[in-house]
Design goal:
Blueprint: H1 7-18, H2 27-40, H3 46-55, H4 57-68, H5 78-94, E1 99-104, H6 110-122, E2 128-134, H7 137-145, E3 147-149, H8 158-164, E4 165-168, E5 171-174, H9 176-179, E6 182-186, E7 198-202, H10 212-225, E8 226-233, E9 248-252, E10 255-258
Parallel strand pairs: 1-2, 1-7, 2-6, 7-8
Antiparallel strand pairs: 3-5, 4-5, 8-10, 9-10
Length: 260
């Protein structure tokens, strides 16, 4: 009798193929997404789906993108960006030091580019750099291209749209000068080393897909990556329980500061 491949075995095979450990993700949520994709490709079991991934690189790329859930907008959650513009960035800039900012899980680049727009306006000649990382190599290529559908710009303030984008054939293209202000790099948050001495870290709408244990491990590592008085920003649908455990204090929803 042939043994049917179960989800545990499937996770092991996926880890070998793309380097993503699905054990760190909420199981029911992840299984549901995988089964939806299998149905879309008319595949009935895990072995057949793995065979499809092996023979079609475009489906493998789509599978990776589908699992890492790349949804984003410029200035997503305006209350957070208002805090960044009026409190977080001005306080950091007043120090007069070179700033190191990290957008972790940057997806299509809307977040780090939004930060670049704010910093270019607040400190056009200031010393700051923005690093943006993501697991999905294909999505990083899209981020570097800087080509966006109009819905991605839905919450972008009008002054930034006029200043930094040009429209062509229904798409909006980010100007090359602003693109040059963001450095993109592939990174697996679950296995790769973290940045150090950061003034501001954003990891937004990423934790909600992980198990509680993985969330807490990542929060601890992010806190260790911050300078004292550095800032940590998460998604509005996310929350850090007892932030003092990680050396953080909550300033407002989704916005935390590393305590002295």
């Amino acid at each position: 009798m042939v043994k049917v491949m179960d989800y545990e075995q499937f996770k092991e095979k996926v880890k070998i193929r793309i380097g993503l450990d699905l054990s760190s993700y909420k199981e029911q949520q992840m299984k549901r997404r995988i089964h939806q994709l299998m149905q879309r490709h008319h595949v009935e079991d895990y072995p057949a789906f793995l065979a499809l991934l092996d023979c079609d690189r475009s489906i493998l790329a789509h599978f990776t993108d589908y699992l890492t859930i790349n949804t984003s907008q410029f200035f997503r959650d305006l209350a957070v960006y208002q805090a960044l513009e009026t409190k977080v960035l001005p306080e950091l800039l007043r120090k007069g030091e070179a700033l190191k900012i990290w957008s972790a899980g940057c997806s299509i680049g809307a977040e780090p580019y939004s930060l670049a727009m704010l910093l270019k306006e607040l400190a056009p000649s200031g010393r700051w750099r923005i690093l943006a990382t993501d697991f999905d190599a294909n999505i990083l290529l899209k981020a570097q291209e800087g080509k966006y559908a109009e819905n991605v710009l839905a919450t972008l303030p009008a002054r930034f749209r006029q200043r930094h984008f040009s429209e062509q054939n229904g798409y909006f293209y980010l100007d090359s000068q602003l693109k040059s202000l963001v450095q993109f790099r592939r990174q697996n948050l679950l296995t790769d080393s973290f940045e150090t001495a950061c003034d501001l870290i954003l990891c937004r709408n990423v934790f909600i897909y992980f198990t509680v244990e993985t969330q807490e491990e990542l929060i601890q590592r992010f806190s260790q990556s911050l300078k004292t008085d550095g800032w940590f920003v998460i998604g509005c649908a996310e929350m850090i329980t007892s932030p003092a455990r990680f050396g953080l204090e909550k300033i407002q929803p989704a916005v935390y500061r590393k305590m002295k």
